[in-house]
Amino acid sequence: MKIGVIAIQGNVEEHVIALEQTLAERGEEGEVLKIKHRGIIESCDAIVIPGGESTTIGRLMEREGIFLEIKEAARARKPILGTCAGMVLLAKEGDAEVAKTGQPLLGLMDVKVKRNAFGRQRESFEVPLQMSFLNEPFHAVFIRAPAIIHAADSVEVLATLKGHIVAAKQENIMGLSFHPELTEDRRIHHYFLDTAL
Ligand code: GLN
């Protein structure tokens, strides 16, 4: 299996390592590719859009022609995971802060996102988070995290925190407000790869 990590900016290396560990834990042959240019996504079975600065990642992805390729991958039902800024980019709609920047969105999830949803005073925090598909809570690291403030009925909510949706899935597309790549727990990466088989 080939997994592509969009490697334009942000938490790229951490996702690559997490995915390599996950493949190894599964005893699965695989390769994790860093995607900086167009022409690679088509060969990937699953795609991860990391956290970072969504305005920068979005603009560069669009300029490199990666935006269109991700939309095609989504249409081909390949699993796509967006974490933090990556989740913002997956959304159909953003709040006023997102609109203000004029940042391009992929529009692959029927959700409205809010940037920095947990306020400046709590730029970064960690919580044990109950997720719908896990028995034990997941230690979730939030860094200037966005949240989903509205979701269509077709969106499956995987976790909520303080009245916001912080993890959700719509068919082959999954968005997380937090950073599963920053802890050693690989359960979410396993869940993501399960959907790729
Ligand atoms: N607030 C950032 C953004 O929307 C996301 C922060 C992150 O990815 N850690 O671009």
Explain the layout of strands and helices:
Elements: E1 2-6, H1 12-26, E2 31-35, E3 46-49, H2 54-64, H3 66-75, E4 80-83, H4 85-90, E5 91-94, H5 96-101, E6 109-114, E7 124-129, E8 138-143, E9 147-151, E10 156-161, E11 164-170, E12 173-176, H6 187-194
Parallel strand pairs: 1-2, 1-3, 3-4, 4-12, 5-6
Antiparallel strand pairs: 6-9, 7-8, 10-11, 11-12
What features would you describe in this structure?
- This protein has one domain (2-194): 3-Layer(aba) Sandwich (Rossmann fold).
- The chain is built from six helices and twelve strands.
- It is of the alpha/beta class.
- The protein is globular, with a radius of gyration of 15 Å.
- The strands form three sheets. A seven-stranded mixed β-sheet has the order 2-1-3-4-12-11-10, sandwiched between helices.
- Residues 51-54, 84-85, 88, 115-116, 143-144, 146 line the site of glutamine (GLN).
As a whole number of angstroms, the C-alpha radius of gyration is 15 Å
Mean pLDDT across the residues is: 95
Percent helix, as a range, is 25-40%
Taken in chain order, the helices and strands follow as EHEEHHEHEHEEEEEEEH
Q: What would CATH call the homologous superfamily?
A: Class I glutamine amidotransferase (GATase) domain
Q: Per CATH, what is the topology?
A: Rossmann fold
In short:
With 197 residues, the protein is α/β, with parallel strands linked by helices. It has one domain: Rossmann fold.
